[in-house]
Amino acid sequence: MKKVIVIGCGAAGMMAAIAAAEAGHQVWIYEKNEKAGKKLFITGKGRCNVTNACDTEDLFRHIIHNPKFLYSGFYHFTNFDMMDFLNRNHCPVKIERGERVFPVSDKSSDIIHALVARLKKLKVEICLNEEVDGLVIENQCIRGIILRKGTKQVKADAVIVATGGLSYPSTGSTGDGYRFAKAAGHSVTELTPALVPLQAEESEVRELMGLSLRNVRVRIFRDHQLLYDEFGEMLFTHFGVSGPVILSASSLIASQLRKSRLTLSIDCKPALSEEQLDARILRDFEEVKNRQFKNSLSHLLPSRMIPVVVDRSGIDPEKKVNEISREERRRLAQIIKDFRMTLTGMRGYSEAIVTQGGVSVREINPSTMESKLVNNLYFAGEVLDLDAVTGGFNLQIAWSTGHLAGSSIE
User: Fold this and answer.
1) Helix, strand or coil for residue 114?
2) Residues 330-345: what's their mean pLDDT?
3) 226 in Cβ contact with 374 (< 8 Å)
4) d(CA 102, CA 317)
5) d(CA 38, CA 12)
6) CA of 394: how far to CAs of 57, 355, 384, 397, in Å?
7) Of the candidates 85, 112, 191, 400, which lies 20 to 30 Å from 51 by C-alpha distance?
């Protein structure tokens, strides 16, 4: 039996502590916040997309950085193991569109309650309002931690760093783990916000603010090079664009967007070709021959989008639809199929779901999550250079790496 200290009481930290306690160790969690799972509580707008029910093999396709590193972790504690864990611990789950898994109650607090109840049953000590200031390392071996209060040292046989990244700093994610890793001799890769809304240049976004588009095709280009192409749901905001398909795009285009502006193309009617859309517009116009153009698109577009599309089309808004030429109609179809905006940057960590970059996985044993540089020092979750698209995959990284770290302590 070893004395194990986990730094951080988030998703990875709680799962690491559970696994270590189930392996027979004495476990303490040190958390600088006043409660457990503070970031988990706001995940998924308070619903918590806890994992994804795709085949375990398919998890890797949704990981953006270092998917091969996760092979041992994902198969050691799978997405189905996580669902089973919650079902067994009085938090039944359900599967929604895109294989996204949520608690039946739609309350993230129920996920936290299930984890905390299990921790308490295993007699894990949860020390809240206790900020860790550093690690105690002697002869390349972990010896304990230093608490900020009174610079007190606490001895330990093993330490798991599960402090999260830099996203949502109001929840306590202020990059402490990177500082601990560097002090231990580890490399930390370039850090950037990920799964984050994007800023657009056009002032029209203010007119569209709050408008959600479903089942659209989103493409992002750098000059003529296609960087991203996906179907899904998006949202206009006062500064640009957000929503699931945009958040996932942000993680894949971050490096390109830092170098230059990019072009966002929205296909509002991806199920129709341009010719089919033109025929559809013609049919709509036939039904309202004497109506003004500005009042003729209610069956085709959301009301908020109509003034913007009318303006972009260059067609006189007062013009009767039976006077609109074939060329004007084709131009309208092109705008609906290729609604363009200029992306100028990303929002900051306060709006980012995860942090891209982290402790270099080259210096971590993928079979145990133990540091290759310091014995009995482990890392788990977002603090590592691992990230994924939306859909529950980032939380599964936390569950799997946390569980593997906790159960690998001997």
Assistant:
1) helix
2) 97
3) no
4) 46
5) 13
6) 15, 10, 11, 5
7) 191
- Residues composing the chain: 410
Q: Nearest CA to 406 among 369, 364, 354, 352?
A: 369
Task: For residues 97 and 100, give the distance between their C-alpha atoms in angstroms, rounded to a whole number.
Answer: 6
Per-residue pLDDT reduced to its tens digit, 264-308? 999 999 999 999 999 999 999 998 888 999 999 999 999 999 999
Q: In whole angstroms, what separates CA 220 from the centre of its chain?
A: 19
What type of residue is 319?
K
This prediction has a pTM of 0.93
The DSSP 8-state label assigned to residue 185 in this structure reads T
Q: What is the pLDDT of residues 45-66, one digit of tens each?
A: 899 999 999 999 999 999 999 9
CA nearest neighbour of 347 among 264, 207, 237: 237
Phi, psi angle pair for 341, to nearest 5°: -140, 160
Contact at 8 Å (CB) between 264 and 220? yes
- Nearest to 119, CA basis, from 89, 146, 144, 92: 89
What per-residue confidence (pLDDT) applies to 168? 86
Q: Quick one: which H or E segment has residue 246?
A: helix 244-259
